[in-house]
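Feature request, filed as a ticket because there's no other form

It would be nice if the structure record came with a short human-readable summary line next to the tokens. Right now we just get the raw output. Example of a typical job, pasted below so the devs can see what we mean:
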Amino acid sequence: MAVPIDTFSPASVTIIAGIGWSYPCDLWSVGCILIELLTGEALFQTHENLEHLAMMERVLGPIPEHMVRRSTRGAEKYFRRGARLNWPEGAVSRESIRAVKKLDLLEDIVSSRVDSSRSSLTDLLHGVLTYDPNERLTARQALDHPFFRNPT
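Raw output as currently delivered:
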């Protein structure tokens, strides 16, 4: 498998866990970019894989067990038995733990910056930031989303 050229921040769980890379990863990146446009900051500001996965779980909830089971041998070190992330036990530093703890849930990130009536943005972001690429919105589905159809 070829290694994708990618900035680290918008890397999806499938890239970090060695599951694979394809077009759905681009939609994940779009979600990260939309958050960055909204907040002015990258969503996952790290270059350490375990911390990155912990940040994802903090913002989006637990990584599904079936995704963890598909991770490559090199990525198994990020997970404990039972498919739980090896966090915070595996953290490289206290600063890393603090960086993860300061993150909010996706809904809170959006609602703190956008009128609550804009729940279609949160829905769109959940659609493109879905862990499983087979369940993630496609580009066509994202473009047809109410957030883009009714931008009032």
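Something like this underneath would help us a lot:
The chain has nine helices and no strands.
The chain has a mean pLDDT of 87.
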